Amino acid sequence: MKPTLFEVMRMSRICRMALVTCLGSFILVIFYFQSMLHPVMRRNTFGMDICCRKGSRSPLQELYNPTQTKRPRLQSGSDLLKITQLELSNTAILHQMRRDQVTDTCRANSVTSRKRRVLTPNDLKHLVVDEDHELIYCYVPKVACTNWKRVMMVLTGRGKYSDPMEIPANEAHVSANLKTLNQYSIPEINHRLKNYLKFLFVREPFERLVSAYRNKFTQKYNTSFHKRYGTKIVKRQRKNATQEALRKGDDVKFEEFVAYLIDPLTQREEPFNEHWQTVYSLCHPCHIHYDLIGKYETLEDDSNYVLQLAGVSSYLKFPTYAKSTKTTDEMTTEFFQNISMEHQTQLYDVYKLDFLMFNYSVPSYLKLE
Ligand SMILES: *[C@@H]1O[C@H](CO)[C@@H](O)[C@H](O)[C@H]1NC(C)=O
Ligand SMILES: *[C@@H]1O[C@H](CO)[C@@H](O)[C@H](O)[C@H]1NC(C)=O
Ligand SMILES: *[C@@H]1O[C@H](CO)[C@@H](O)[C@H](O)[C@H]1NC(C)=O
Ligand SMILES: *[C@@H]1O[C@H](CO)[C@@H](O)[C@H](O)[C@H]1NC(C)=O
């Protein structure tokens, strides 16, 4: 196929960008233009042997330019648009809408410009890398991250594991078992951000929050959160706390937890713990262009779509979820009954960007001022 003038112009721009990137590779550059580029061209312009996937296509190519669809000969620009739209599967359209929603929210709330700083490797600790399948997964606690880490261990294990569920949960959280993006050099980071399929999984923000609260403060089996955060919350939020409660921190009420989260002092002291940190602070979706945004509400479908793009779906399925203790919408509603309108409003403000970016509507139980 002969390239059109437009494509040639675009390619020369890409070449210039690639040159600039190579020269400036000691700075961590974030590529805002990723989504505009054609994955195939992107590889060619770099002119290097990028990976080991001889004869096979990368997940990024599969996502933006699927193999299955035959491309009819195109006549004009408007035909192009019509045919491409027809060609896109419903899934592809859905994911394009999700990506657009993130982009639009970032722009509308000027998250990108307000915090217009380049990311540092320290910001990339949640991005798990699979070099063999060219995937980057930003893990968000309380959004099936244990199972996704298990799957990433199977994918990167080179045959060490075959079934994700054979990996014990605590093993999946041992950081040495998975490689994260901050462990690479700056040029290696930039290369991976550009060429790998980047994805994350999100969940209704308040359901995620209640899940974190239940998991960390209402269970007795692990006291580390009670000691580390519970004692602080009781001390700061409870009047007339008993000596025992102050010492153990094991009976934090949801109201107290919420009061702690909305207290401006909390985030001034230190960042939120990852279990209740916002997704935009953990994964930086306004700076890193995620190719695929999976949702907890459609976990199985979205996860298996990622595995399909990675070309492993014939032998690897996402573990089906059957957790009886799962936090539900009804449960979340219950927990918010006790929260004052003022605190509900302030809490919504803390998590507002996550609501907007990932298209979660204001919960019907919420009473906002
Ligand atoms: C957002 O959610 C609404 C209702 O759930 C849905 O109709 C709409 O298509 C979604 N928009 C995007 C961009 O995902
Ligand atoms: C308790 O939780 C902490 C933090 O998640 C973890 O590092 C630790 O290994 C856990 N301890 C047990 C006994 O599960
Ligand atoms: C704290 O305890 C004292 C003495 O028992 C009591 O008089 C006071 O009302 C309590 N304050 C609160 C806020 O419960
Ligand atoms: C709400 O508050 C009441 C009274 O303090 C308490 O008994 C109940 O357990 C609370 N409910 C939740 C879900 O926290």
Describe this structure in words.
By secondary structure, the chain is mainly α. The chain is 50% helix and 5% strand. The protein is built from 18 helices and five strands. Strands 3-1-2-4-5 form a five-stranded mixed beta sheet, with helices on both faces. α1 (5-23) crosses α2 (39-46) and α13 packs across α18 (341-357). The longest helix is centred in the N-terminal third of the chain and has 19 residues, at 5-23. The protein starts with a helix and ends in a 12-residue tail after the last helix. The model is unreliable at 1-9 and 19-54 (pLDDT under 50). Bound molecules: 2-acetamido-2-deoxy-beta-D-glucopyranose (4 copies). One 2-acetamido-2-deoxy-beta-D-glucopyranose binds next to α5.
Task: Report how far the terminal alpha carbons are from each other.
Answer: 59 Å
The bound ligands are:
2-acetamido-2-deoxy-beta-D-glucopyranose
Strand content: 5-15%
Q: Mean pLDDT, rounded to whole units? A: 82
If helices are DSSP runs of H or I spanning 4 or more residues, what is the number of helices?
Answer: 18
Alpha-carbon Rg, integer: 23 Å
Query: In which range does the helix fraction lie?
Result: 40-55%
Q: Stretches where pLDDT falls below 50 for ≥5 residues? A: 1-9, 19-54
Tally the beta strands. 5
Shape: globular
* Biggest beta-sheet profile: 5 strands, mixed
Topology readout:
Elements: H1 5-23, H2 39-46, H3 59-64, H4 77-87, H5 90-108, H6 111-114, E1 127-130, E2 135-138, H7 145-156, H8 169-172, E3 179-180, H9 186-195, E4 197-202, H10 205-217, H11 224-237, H12 243-248, H13 254-262, H14 264-269, H15 279-283, E5 292-295, H16 299-309, H17 329-337, H18 341-357
Parallel strand pairs: 2-4, 4-5
Antiparallel strand pairs: 1-2, 1-3
Helix pairs in contact: 1-2, 10-17, 11-13, 13-18
Bound molecules: 2-acetamido-2-deoxy-beta-D-glucopyranose (4 copies).
